[in-house]
Design brief:
By secondary structure, the protein is an alpha/beta fold. The protein is built from 37 helices and 22 strands. β18 and β19 (789-791) form a beta hairpin.
Length: 895
């Protein structure tokens, strides 16, 4: 319902600058800044939605000089040039505004303010109300009964009373007020030393600038002198701050009605800028659905239809498949239906277990799977899917070993650009195909009322499942050519990521045995310690408070105890984030106790309380999920439980590891790459000193200590070794002298001396770091030894802090990523051997640089020898690879 008597004018230029400075910098996956454009669009969208105006104008300053520069060449001369990160966003913003159908205005020779002033005047004559969206104080001069200002950033309205309340003068006096105070940002001279208070006092007394000037002789003291000196330039200042209200415009108010959006153009722009939510919205509109290409989706309910399709599948070289199930938990999920696609735009769904009240009769699941088994287990028929590891597990639940997995679209996207947003199908479809897919919520409902898939009506399920298969095929056809253009990326995909899928599935399904009793006892101990910590913190604080409440903690630390505020939250509150507490914990006891409390309560909730509940009733084991497409560097992550986060150095962490046990007659074997990232650094940097230390089998931390502290190797103390370990690891993570000083508890000067000395001894490392930094700035990404890429969107960011962080990532990512590639290759080799050998052993976990096995006691020695060989031969570096192998009744003993 439009407001017929309303004109909304948006001061686009003012908001463009303000959005840039006020909002966190955003960029798309190509590193193109998008935050200011997004901020301005978001604001205008909200404003238009809230006010529903009949007329709308979005006004920007045109390029080039204005009449004010002719009057006063120094006008705005002190303004800095628009930063590059902002300049590149201007055209995309204009394009989006235009495609949205909003009237956009730029008039040469005048400023946006003048156009706004003129339009407000014209609107008055037409009897319209005007709402001006701006953050610019100059605009207060336009306010009257029909013109109101809105600051969309702070969501405040300013009418006549609002102006008086804020400035202390009326809208009619604003020009005079601004003439007296001047404007630093526009380089407009006022009266020296006259600020808002004085200007208000003078105008209260004399009402106008002219009266103030006429009575200049009556002003006493220094400020009177300043006023008299300013008399010559005050008329100019007044002319500069006066908004022109008679600009000749080539259009009139009726031309300011919004037009229909150009949806195709919007979709292109939103895809390019990666504004996912708006893209989703643009794609979801009715017009869009009507112009979408037709699809041919079928539901197979009879044996005749099934047999006909089975023949098609048998003759295909490549098939796309997807399973629909009762649960995301791959161990418990049961199959509800399968979908296949052989051509873009066509797909079938075979329901086999929809069991709601009046569900149609469906084919028998076991019969369907028996017919499909030869095809699914044929390694020569290539399978394409999205997250095939899950489907592989579902088939395994039904006794089928899925073979011939050739392409996984989730991994194609991940290898193509691991630091891009998400790699789920809905996101990829938006990004690469510009198509909005049916979401699971649309067919199954939300929240507590959500149905499981077997309860979803076959018709709805069929469209959803068939679309999944069809979109997966289209994604593969979009992604594979991009990937295939890059030899390095293709190799990472075909030699590492795809062969790893079955390996991870085997580990997941094997699971790990957990001693629930032990964990329960540990939970009890942790509860006791948490209570003690709580009491200690309350004693130190001198009052009781809730440690889990950031608000209460903030009050205690920064108001009551007056600790230094190191960082603020976006809302301007003192931050109590982990990193801040760590800093404070060096000097103060309370934050130290809070940190201990946080880490113990996390261990308790995540592990000692949760693990016993995660034991699968059928297998009696805990089954984690390994995520191949999450960590940008190529490392695996794991969820439910997260095995990567159990601390290895603390007693509490070790106690949790003791609960990971071997069954009777078996042992746990842990095999860990020794200092793999430092060895990779030695290889990549080709540093002679570092390579020599590794080649001679020296303890690298002691060898570094001998170099940095200039003592013979045999005289290195444990303290010196500890420090040099911090240096070795700190430098490959880009640690500064300040960070190192904190870690080794020395002065910043000493830490800097150690770093300088390190680089003197290992010049190859320094050169490598300089070169990789340079390369990252030039090409926007770095690579691992195997050609895996990590894009760094912020490597050339305007904000130096973000740029430095990207540089640190650039130095570290090739090492972390290469280490990830190496252990993945080792896993593939070990899994292959375990499948071919008679040895009773299983790989049960992968954590960072470590592989964990469960082996029958009399086979332990053979396993140890073989995995050492396979892991050390997984890669050829210029330095020897070493593996530490331990054996025990539980994971802690073996580690």
């Amino acid at each position: 319902n439009k407001n017929d008597d309303l004109l909304v004018l948006v001061d686009g230029s003012s908001y463009f600058y303000r959005a840039f400075h006020a909002l966190p910098p955003l960029s798309n996956s190509k590193g193109q800044p998008t935050g200011a454009a997004y901020g301005v669009m978001n604001m205008i969208r909200k404003l238009v939605k809230d006010t529903q105006p009949k007329y709308l104008g979005i006004i920007f300053d045109a390029k080039g000089k204005t009449f004010r520069n002719e009057m006063y060449p120094e006008y705005k001369a002190t303004r800095e040039k628009m930063p590059d990160d902002l300049t590149v966003q201007f055209q995309p913003l204009l394009d989006v505004i235009e495609a949205t159908g909003w009237p956009m205005i730029m008039v040469e020779g005048v400023e946006a303010d003048d156009v706004i002033g003129t339009l407000a005047q014209l609107a008055k004559k037409e009897g319209l109300k005007t709402l001006v969206s701006t953050g610019d104080k100059d605009m207060a001069q336009l306010v009257d009964e029909q013109v109101t200002l809105i600051n969309t950033m702070s969501n405040t309205l300013m009418d006549r009373d609002g102006v008086i309340k804020k400035f202390g003068v009326t809208p009619e006096q604003i020009i005079d007020y601004l003439s007296l105070t001047g404007d630093k940002s526009d380089n407009i001279p006022g009266v020296p030393k006259v600020g808002p208070k004085t200007a208000v006092k003078w105008l209260d007394q004399y009402n106008t600038l002219e009266n103030v000037m006429e009575n200049a002789d009556e002003f006493k003291g220094k400020v009177g002198e300043y006023l008299r000196e300013s008399l010559t330039h005050l008329p100019l200042s007044k002319a500069l701050v006066t908004i022109k209200q008679d600009v000749s415009l080539a259009f009139s108010i009726p031309d300011l009605e919004a037009k229909q959006p150009d949806r195709q153009r919007l979709i292109e722009l939103y895809r390019e800028l990666e504004f996912r939510g708006w893209l989703n919205e643009a794609l979801g509109s009715q017009e869009q659905k009507e112009t979408a290409e037709p699809t041919n989706y079928e539901t197979i309910l009879t044996e005749e239809e099934f047999d006909a399709y089975l023949n098609k599948l048998k003759q295909s070289k490549e098939i796309v498949l997807d399973t629909e199930t009762t649960s995301l938990n791959y161990m418990n999920a049961e199959m509800v239906g399968l979908s296949f696609s052989l051509e873009p735009g066509e797909a079938v769904y075979i329901p086999v277990a929809h069991d709601y009240l009046d569900a149609p009769i469906q084919l028998n699941r076991e019969w369907v799977l028996a017919q499909l088994k030869p095809i699914l287990e044929d390694p020569d028929i290539k399978k394409i899917g999205q997250n095939l590891k899950y489907d592989m597990s579902i088939f395994a639940n039904h006794g089928i070993q899925l073979k011939g997995m050739a392409f996984d679209t989730m991994l194609e996207s991940y290898v193509l650009n691991s630091s891009a947003s998400r790699h789920d199908m809905d996101s990829l479809s938006l990004k690469y195909l510009g198509k909005k897919t049916i979401s699971f919520e649309e067919v199954a409902g939300k929240g507590a009322k959500q149905k499981t898939f077997n309860e979803v009506a076959v018709e709805a399920a069929s469209e959803y499942a068939a679309e999944d298969a069809d979109i997966t095929l289209q994604l593969h056809q979009a992604l594979w050519p991009k990937l295939n253009k890059e030899v390095g990326l293709t190799k990472v995909f075909t030699d590492i990521e795809m062969p790893l899928i079955p390996v991870l599935s085997h580990i997941e399904r094997q699971g790990v045995l957990i001693d629930a009793e032990l964990l329960l006892k540990q939970s009890g101990r942790l509860s006791k310690r948490l209570n003690e910590l709580e009491k200690e913190t309350h004693t130190l604080a001198g009052e009781t408070f809730n440690l889990a409440s950031p608000k209460q903690l903030q009050t205690i630390l920064f108001e009551k105890m007056n600790l230094p505020i190191l960082k603020k939250t976006p809302k301007g509150q003192p931050s109590t984030a982990e990193s801040v507490l760590h800093e404070l914990a060096y000097d103060y006891e309370l934050p130290k106790l809070v940190l201990e409390h946080r880490s113990l309560s996390k261990l308790k909730s995540t592990y000692t309380d949760a693990l016993p509940n995660q034991i699968n009733p059928k297998t009696g084991r805990v089954h984690t999920s390994y995520n191949q497409a999450v960590a940008a560097t190529g490392r695996l992550s794991s969820t439910e439980p997260n095995l990567q986060n159990i601390p290895v150095r603390t007693e509490e962490g070790r106690k949790i590891r003791q609960a990971f046990i071997a069954p009777d007659g078996f042992e746990i074997v842990s095999s860990d790459y020794s200092q793999i990232e430092l060895r990779i650094m030695a290889h990549l940097s080709k540093d002679i000193g570092l390579q020599k230390a590794f080649a001679n089998g020296l303890d690298i931390h002691s060898a570094t200590a001998a170099e940095v502290f200039e003592v013979p190797l045999e005289d290195v103390t444990t303290e010196q070794r500890r420090k040099s370990k911090a240096i070795n690891f700190g430098l490959i993570y880009g640690m500064s002298a300040f960070g190192l000083a904190r870690q080794i508890e020395s002065t910043r000067e000493d830490a800097q001396k150690y770093i300088d000395c390190y680089f003197e001894r290992y010049p190859g490392v320094k050169d490598y770091m300089e070169n990789i930094r340079q390369l990252a700035h030039e090409q926007g990404y770095v690579e691992t030894l195997y050609g895996r890429r990590l894009y760094l969107p912020e490597i050339n960011a305007r904000n130096m802090q973000r740029q430095r962080a990207a540089e640190r990532t650039a130095i570290n990512a090739p090492m972390q990523g290469t280490a990830a590639d190496i252990i993945k290759l080792a896993m593939i080799a070990v899994d292959k051997w375990l499948r071919e050998t008679d040895i009773d052993a299983k790989m049960i976990m992968q954590v960072h640089d470590e592989l964990v096995f469960e082996v029958r006691k009399d086979h332990t020695q053979v396993l140890k020898n073989k995995i050492e060989t396979l892991m050390t031969e997984a890669v050829m570096l210029d330095v020897p690879i070493e593996v530490d192998i331990g054996v025990g009744a539980n994971w802690d003993e073996a580690h």
